[in-house]
Design brief:
alpha/beta; about 300 residues; 5-stranded mixed β-sheet; L-arginine/glycine Amidinotransferase, Chain A
Length: about 300
């Protein structure tokens, strides 16, 4: 029997088998020296941040997920270790790449202080023997939190503050041309939006969490291999039979959409958002909640801290 692929993703709600993380270290002190440059809300308690992230890693392993830690994989490479020491945002490992059935797609980050991260992740893919399917080059920028593969051979991406239109065209052309997806959806997000994973998430069972204040109004382009048309993302979700949970404004500011699906009945999230947790639980999905008081000061959630490498 041929070996099973050790990487590849069909959509965000398929069973998670392998995930890449970066368990943070003393590089977090860089964020404390200049929070604004590194897009942190303010200074953090480094020890607590590291401890809470370890709780996330432990919970993923307990759920049967193989956790691949960037720092561990590259710890014997002095050049990379030095690079990591200047990357306080590397813990938000989702943004520097995304996975496809053909291999990793490396991003050129929109936040200039984060562009040191991509070579680190490229080296990690080398250790994992995963090919690079696509790499964005200057002047294009895009970050993985602005992208999602959805059930039904569909991909969605946001034209956000850190995204160039050229990057979205390149990625859409690649995914459609390689027949990795049949539909490419782009959302022209309002100014101030960084990534779509603050506005939308796919959960198991064709369930979606949506921020209606944005997604009901956002200009949306749909593209197949043969044609392109304008429409409404939320109307499309309804027509495709998605069970949409709408978050409130308060929940939006508490990162209510920042879920990580682990299995058909299991997802991970920060602690809090009881109304969303009740709605998700009513759909038969258990939620493992990780303390987020310190980690959220980096303006990212559990979804941002995890880069799925293989989903069943």
């Amino acid at each position: 029997m041929a070996n099973m692929p050790h990487f590849g993703i069909s959509h965000e709600a398929a069973k998670l088998e392998r995930v890449m993380v970066h368990h943070p270290g003393q590089e977090l002190k860089e964020a404390n020296r200049d929070p604004a440059t590194h897009h942190f809300e303010g200074p953090i308690d480094v020890r607590r941040f590291i401890s809470d992230h370890q709780e996330l890693v432990d919970a993923l392993e307990e759920a049967g997920v193989e956790v691949l830690d960037v720092g561990t994989m590259l710890g014997d490479n002095p050049e990379i270790v030095k690079q990591v020491s200047h990357c306080p945002n590397l813990v938000f490992v989702r943004d520097s790449s995304t996975m496809s059935a053909n291999g990793g797609m490396l991003m050129r980050m929109g936040l200039p202080s984060r562009r040191r991260e991509t070579p680190v992740i490229k080296a990690a893919y080398g250790v994992l023997d995963i090919p690079i399917a696509l790499r964005l080059e200057e002047p294009e920028t895009f970050e993985g939190g602005g992208f999602a593969l959805l059930e039904g051979r569909t991909a969605v991406a946001g034209l956000c503050d850190r995204t160039t239109p050229g990057a979205l065209k390149l990625i859409g052309d690649y995914l459609l041309g390689e027949k990795l997806v049949d539909l490419w959806i782009t959302l022209k997000m309002p100014p101030g939006t960084i990534h779509i994973d603050g506005e939308f998430a796919e959960l198991p069972g064709h369930v979606a969490i949506s921020n209606p204040e944005v997604l009901d109004l956002v200009p949306t382009t749909f593209r197949s291999r043969d044609e392109a048309w304008e429409g409404s993302f939320t109307v499309w979700l309804s027509e495709e039979g998605w069970d949409v949970i709408e978050m409130t404004r308060e929940e939006y500011f508490n990162m209510a959409a920042n879920f990580l699906t682990v299995d058909s009945d299991l997802a991970f999230h920060y602690s809090g958002n009881p109304q969303i947790m009740e709605e998700v639980g009513a759909r038969g999905i258990e939620v493992v909640q990780i303390p987020g008081e310190e980690m959220r000061k980096g303006l990212g959630g559990i979804h941002c801290m995890t880069c799925p490498i293989k989903r069943a």
